[in-house]
């Protein structure tokens, strides 16, 4: 099973099906600077 981890706060965002154990780094909604910029 794969795990999606926030590269900023290191919290687990989501899990996804995968043949092997994989960790992918992304940004969770609260760490997404682009989203915050759009709100301002
Ligand atoms: Zn985060």
UniProtKB/TrEMBL annotation:
<protein>
    <submittedName>
        <fullName>GapA-binding peptide SR1P</fullName>
    </submittedName>
</protein>
<dbReference type="InterPro" id="IPR025236">
    <property type="entry name" value="SR1P"/>
</dbReference>
<dbReference type="Pfam" id="PF13790">
    <property type="entry name" value="SR1P"/>
</dbReference>
């Amino acid at each position: 099973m794969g795990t999606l981890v926030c590269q900023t706060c290191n919290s687990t965002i989501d899990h996804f099906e995968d043949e092997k154990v994989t960790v992918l780094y992304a940004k969770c909604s609260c760490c997404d600077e682009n989203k915050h910029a759009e709100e301002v």
